[in-house]
Structure formats: structure tokens, C-alpha cells
Specification:
There is one protein chain. The chain has 391 residues and is α/β, with parallel strands linked by helices. The protein has two domains: 2-237, Type I PLP-dependent aspartate aminotransferase-like (Major domain) (Aspartate Aminotransferase, domain 2, 3-Layer(aba) Sandwich); 239-311 and 345-390, Aspartate Aminotransferase, domain 1 (Alpha-Beta Complex), CATH 3.90.1150.10. It has helices at 2-11, 20-33, 44-54, 123-133, 184-194, 197-203, 226-236, 239-257, 284-287, 291-300, 319-322, 324-327, 345-353, 366-385; strands at residues 37-41, 62-66, 68-70, 83-87, 108-114, 137-140, 148-149, 152-153, 160-164, 177-181, 263-264, 271-272, 278-282, 312-314, 354-357. The longest helix is centred in the last third of the chain and has 20 residues, at 366-385. The radius of gyration is 22 Å and the shape is globular. Bound molecules: pyridoxal-5'-phosphate (PLP). Pyridoxal-5'-phosphate is lined by residues 43-45, 69-70, 72-73, 114, 140, 142-143, 164, 166, 177.
């Protein structure tokens, strides 16, 4: 990685057009998911924002969104005066395709999904639903670099897809993002949101209606940093190997946790998850020990990375989506941006019972896997055999 940084430092630390490391990475990434266009941005949020701009939304339009995701999947939509209809989750926390249709209205413009925690959505069913409804499918693949449903890579089938390249992600540049699509109209508008002058002039088609606006773009600058992309490029070259290493670690967690009836493991049938994290579910009713006591016991064993994810959560839980007029009065008076009062029981249960473990990758980290497994077994055995010990 140091080598990639130094090499880029010597070449260029600002790239105005589609050349150098931007060209190389976009081409590699585009080919990896088999799409026509790729566009790097300075964050995953900006990549999603650019896709939403590409949809050419109007105030009052509506979108179908996940009830459970990281909020940045949908937060850029607050800039558009649109309304969001959240849809309940399936067993992996992903949008349940069977629940979409009831929220579609004549104003619905797109279906947005996230491949949660690296587990591919049921993309083929989602595409069937999207085709029947005549709506584009937008995939947030920020947890799911390299994940596949059967042989189908996430991000390869929907109308457009975005990945974060932020520091925690399976492919990272520290900060960064990338989007892909086959739709030239969407791409040109997405490009114009945060790219301008040389890059816009280079990539807009000869007949593009944006040609006269190429110098300024639409007024924002969302360009990536070349050193970040040089790091991401180096990481990307390891993706296949790293995904299989993550799978090996996940297999060990699965084997260790399988015996306990109060632990629910992710459904991985027919998929290659990215294992961005290992998220399992704790069934308090079966365990007879409250989840916070269970997590505290794991922390007491030194498993301090065990986490109940909170910033990835219920979209209805954020004031940005429920009290929008207080911060964006120029776009919203009432009602609120999101149909937050609709109960989404599966998403709520997923959120309340999720426990997250890191999926370590490198040889010198593997001792954590064995010590976490020993700690998990120890605490789970007490829950299984002597729950009264928790008081
Ligand atoms: C599912 C999801 N979507 C979008 C984002 C936003 O990406 P970024 O932090 O690069 O803006 C993240 C980042 O954590 C994410 O996890």
C-alpha cells in the first residue's frame, strides 16, 4: 500500500479529467461488475447522491427505500423534496421484495435497496418486481464489495449501483465512492452533479443536452482524491483473496455459534457474502437473559469489539427523515419525508437483536478469531446451561 501511495504522490495529487488512476480504477471496477459506465466520487454518500441526481427527481416524487440500512443510503434524497416509503426487511435485513408493491404509487420513481452487512439481496426477485412496476432498481453495495447472488455480482443487474470506499469498507481508499450504470442519460446527469470542466467536456456525448453547462457542471465538487483511489486500487487487487479469507473466518464463527438455539445465523444459501461484518441475532426469549446482559458478559471476557450496531439502523429513527421541515424548510413543510409511522416489524426485530463481530482478515489478526470464539462459547454455554447466573 505504501508503494501505491508513493507512486501516486509522484504522479499527481489532483486529477481534473478521466485519466491516470481514476481511469485505471474505473475501468477495472466497471469490468468487474460488467457495466458500461463508472464514476469515482469523494464518498459513497456522494456516489448515491449522484445516482439520485441521475434520476432527475422532482419535488413530490416518491421512492421505495429500506426500513433498515445505514442512513446515508437515503439521506441525499432529503435534498430533493421527495417522499420515501420504507419497506420491511427479510431475515438478512434486506428489503423484502414481497412487501414493495403495497407502497408503490403513481409518483414512485425508483426502488432503493442495500445489500446489508454484505449479504446480497434477492436481486433476481427484486428485478422481476421492479420490471413489473416499471421502476429502476438502485443498489447500495457499500457493505458488499465482491458479494454475489449465485454467479451474479451485486451491482451488476440493477439500474445503477454505488459503493462506499470509506475506511471501514472491504475495499477502501480511506474515503471515496464509486457508482456504475449502463444508462448514459443517468450517467451524464450523475457526472454533472459533482464533476465539471475537463472531465465533463471529456465524457459528455456530442449531442448531450448538458454540453453548454459542462464548464460549471451543476455546481458541486464531489471529485475523489487520487491518493485515496491509488490505495483503493491496490486493495481491489486483493478482493477475491480477501473475500475467501473472510469466508473462512465466518465459517469458524458459524461452526462455533450453530449449537446454540438462542443464536440465529445469517442465511447464506446460494450466495457469496462479502462478510463486511459478521452479524448474528440473539433470541432473548429463548435465552432467558436480556441482550444487554449477554453483550456485557462478552465485553467482560475482553471481547470489546462485540457491538450492537446503532448507526446502521431503522430509517424511521432519524429526525432528518421524520422532522425534515425543521432543517429543510425550503423543501419540506409537511408531511414528513418518510412514512415513519408504518410499523416494520422484521426490520425492528433485526435492529433490536443484531450483534456484530469484526471479520478479521490478516494472518497477524487470526489470534483474535480464536480468542473471540473461546469467549463466545464460554458466555453462550452459561446462557444455555445456567441463565440464572446472570441474576
Ligand atoms: C450502507 C452504506 N451506504 C452508504 C454509506 C456512505 O458511504 P460514505 O461514508 O463513503 O459516504 C455507508 C458508509 O458507511 C454505508 O455503510
Amino acid at each position: 500500500m505504501e508503494h501505491a501511495v508513493l507512486e501516486q504522490l509522484r504522479k499527481s495529487i489532483s486529477i481534473y479529467d478521466r485519466s491516470g488512476i481514476f481511469l485505471d480504477f474505473e475501468e477495472r471496477f466497471r469490468a468487474h461488475v460488467g457495466r458500461k459506465f463508472a464514476l469515482l466520487t469523494n464518498s459513497g454518500t456522494s456516489a448515491l447522491h449522484s445516482i439520485y441526481e441521475g434520476l432527475d427527481l422532482r419535488p413530490g416524487d416518491e421512492l421505495i427505500v429500506p426500513a433498515y440500512t445505514f442512513y446515508a443510503t437515503i439521506s441525499p434524497l432529503a435534498q430533493y423534496g421527495v417522499f420515501l416509503n420504507q419497506v420491511d426487511a427479510d431475515a438478512n435485513g434486506n428489503v423484502d421484495p414481497a412487501k414493495i408493491e403495497q407502497y408503490v404509487t403513481p409518483r414512485t420513481r425508483a426502488i432503493v435497496v442495500t445489500h446489508m452487512w454484505g449479504h446480497p439481496c434477492n436481486t433476481k426477485t427484486l428485478l422481476t418486481v421492479a420490471a413489473r412496476l416499471g421502476l429502476p432498481l438502485i443498489e447500495d453495495c457499500s457493505h458488499a464489495h465482491g458479494a454475489a447472488d449465485g454467479n451474479t455480482m451485486v451491482g451488476s443487474l440493477g439500474h445503477a449501483a454505488a459503493w462506499s470506499l470509506q475506511g471501514q469498507k472491504n475495499v477502501t481508499g480511506g474515503e471515496g465512492g464509486i457508482l456504475v450504470t449502463d444508462d448514459e442519460t443517468l450517467f451524464e446527469r450523475a457526472l454533472m452533479l459533482g464533476h465539471y470542466n475537463k472531465r465533463a467536456k471529456q465524457q459528455l456525448s456530442v449531442t448531450s443536452r448538458y454540453r453548454d453547462f459542462a464548464t460549471t457542471g451543476l455546481g458541486l465538487k464531489l471529485r475523489a482524491h487520487p491518493i485515496a483511489i491509488a490505495i483503493a486500487d491496490e486493495q481491489f487487487s486483493h478482493l477475491r483473496d480477501w473475500t475467501s479469507r473472510r469466508q473462512t473466518v465466518a465459517n469458524q464463527f458459524i461452526a462455533a455459534l450453530q449449537p446454540y438455539s438462542f443464536i440465529h445465523l445469517p442465511n447464506t444459501a446460494g450466495t457469496q457474502p462479502a462478510w463486511y461484518a459478521f452479524v448474528f441475532h440473539y433470541d432473548q426469549g429463548r435465552a432467558h437473559v436480556p441482550i444487554d446482559r449477554f453483550v456485557r458478559a462478552l465485553h467482560a471476557e475482553g471481547l470489546v469489539e462485540v457491538d450492537q450496531p446503532s448507526s446502521t439502523g431503522l430509517t424511521a429513527g432519524y429526525p432528518l427523515f421524520t422532522r425534515t421541515p425543521e432543517v429543510l424548510p425550503r423543501l419540506y413543510d409537511s408531511p414528513m419525508l418518510l412514512n415513519a409511522s408504518e410499523p416494520q416489524p422484521n426490520a425492528a426485530r433485526f435492529f433490536q437483536t443484531a450483534i456484530k463481530l469484526p471479520v478479521w482478515l490478516f494472518d497477524d489478526e487470526m489470534h483474535w478469531v480464536s480468542s473471540y470464539i473461546a469467549g463466545l462459547r464460554k458466555v453462550c454455554d452459561v446462557v444455555a446451561n445456567n441463565p440464572a447466573a446472570f441474576g
